[in-house]
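Form P-L/3: holo structure prediction, ligand NAP.
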Amino acid sequence: MRAIRYDRYGGPEVLQLVDLPQAPLAPDEIRVALSHASVTPLDCKLRAGLLKAHFTVDFPKVPGRDGAGVVSEVGPAVTDFAVGDRVCLLARHGTQGSYASERVSYADDLVPIPGGLSDEAAASLVNAGLSAQVSVFETARIEAGMKVLVHAGAGAVGGLIVQLCRHLGADVTATCRAANRDYVRALGAARAIAYDTEDFATLRDQDVVFDLVGGETHARSYPVLKKGGQLVWLVAAPVVDRGAEYGVEVTRAMIADRREPVEAILTMVAKGEIVPQIAGILSLAEAAEAHRRMEAGEVTRGRLLLATG
Ligand SMILES: NC(=O)c1ccc[n+]([C@@H]2O[C@H](COP(=O)([O-])OP(=O)(O)OC[C@H]3O[C@@H](n4cnc5c(N)ncnc54)[C@H](OP(=O)(O)O)[C@@H]3O)[C@@H](O)[C@H]2O)c1
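OUTPUT (holo model):
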């Protein structure tokens, strides 16, 4: 099998394409021939050593949090999946990642891909979809008529949050770069505010702000909320909780690897209720270039994928 690995923290250049021997399967294990993996900001932060305080990286490390492909072999104790099933997978923290031509998984980490959905679409939706589903349905509990501001509305997670909130009947405003205004409006935002030319902080009376940026953007989001509103944040730049001062609830969306939110978002996409967002596709050998683009802020309008097959 081919995989991308790194054996020390560093820049994108530490990512190396290697050939690895195929591991034998334990009775309850499932081998997935991967066609695509997504490149997430977390992959880059882990590789750069920015998350040493939170996550242990066992070197050599194969990066990647998710992927899509087909079951190529099952252990004798496996009952839920069979060879030929199309699946997407969650690669849990501390396990081998998905920047590889195949990966060994357990049934709990696999979600069937609904008919009609491509591998590319599925791969773009696993980690980003999990984050968006949990944030919208479990953390913020968005309802029809709510006024919602979504920061980073053109990103992989933010774009899905925009679509989910619109689907639920919320009144959505999103921030994005000026060139992406039309894009986020097409996703369902009633208003798009360009972070590079406009000031979102003049908004008022929002029920919920989704903060996927942190830092200064987080700090400037408090006056935008009505009293009793909710500021939902995902881990990005560090934040300072000023909820008590402004009379708002500040909640971190806790994104744990679970199949159910992924199943839910795949079903919504299969029904045509929301659309997948794919920023581009590079080859597995171009993983370092993918990380360089992500760290340079060049990845926009969804997930960048690696074709791993
Ligand atoms: N477990 C967790 O807490 C968790 C889970 C998932 C994601 N996250 C974090 O959430 C963040 C977004 O993740 P992602 O996967 O959606 O990343 P992404 O696809 O790379 O999107 C990032 C987006 O940020 C936007 N952006 C940059 N600066 C901005 C600003 N000042 N104001 C508004 N938008 C700005 C960019 O918009 P333009 O393209 O329009 O320039 C870009 O599309 C990352 O920091 C990630 O680590 C945390």
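COMMENT: Residues 40-42, 128, 131, 151-152, 154-158, 175-177, 180, 195, 212-213, 217, 234-236, 255, 299-300 surround NAP (CB under 6 Å).
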